[in-house]
Design goal:
10 strands; five-stranded antiparallel beta sheet; alpha+beta; 189 residues; globular; Peptide Deformylase; three-stranded mixed beta sheet
């Protein structure tokens, strides 16, 4: 089932999420709904639970349509922790489903090691690199209540204020349903 995405100015996106003790039917349904919602967007590759109004510490990633990852299985990260970052960094123009129509170059480490649980609550530790490492860092930040534009320099944040103000007040066009900062649902389809 497709569920709406929350606007970046909604309070839930500034809260740190809560760890999951057990994968229940409700959590499985949430994960399936998150993948459905992600597939309903044109360019989405990752989605954190708080982006759909749930404060559970989990995010999903689907890069199966991205050329370098074509056909890769969908990934679920429950209670993730990034345990190491590479010293090497790079810039890439990031966007976010909760921050529609806004893209900026963000510097992030090229490689990360992540400890997390999968859908069966099996503990895993894996290393990720490149675009996938970037997505994981972006979604992990969501679970910490951090939005990607907060990583911009003071100067770039100043330049972005008018664009972000438009997003706050709903002056943008998207192809998916969104919950406004005040909790109002904007239905697109």
């Amino acid at each position: 089932m497709i569920i709406p995405i929350y606007n970046c100015f909604h309070p839930i996106l500034k809260e740190k999420t809560i760890n999951i003790n057990k994968v229940t039917d409700d959590i499985r349904e949430l994960i399936n709904n998150m993948f459905d919602s992600l597939a309903n967007t044109e360019n989405g590759v990752g989605l954190a639970a708080n982006q759909v109004g749930n404060n559970s510490s989990l995010f999903v990633v689907d890069v199966s349509e991205v050329d370098e990852y074509k056909g890769m299985s969908k990934l679920v990260f429950i209670n993730p922790e990034i345990i190491s970052y590479s010293e090497e960094t790079n810039f890439y123009k990031e966007g976010c489903l909760s921050v529609p129509t806004f893209y900026e170059d963000i510097e992030r480490p090229v490689n990360v090691a992540v400890r997390y649980y999968d859908m069966e609550m099996t503990r895993k530790t894996e290393e990720f690199s490149g675009f996938l490492a970037r997505i994981i860092q972006h979604e992990y930040d969501h679970l910490q209540g951090i939005l990607f534009y907060e990583k911009l320099s003071h100067f770039k944040k100043t330049l972005a204020k008018s664009k972000l103000k438009k997003i706050k007040y709903g002056n943008f066009e998207i192809d998916y349903d969104m919950v406004t900062p005040t909790g109002k649902l904007i239905k697109i389809k």
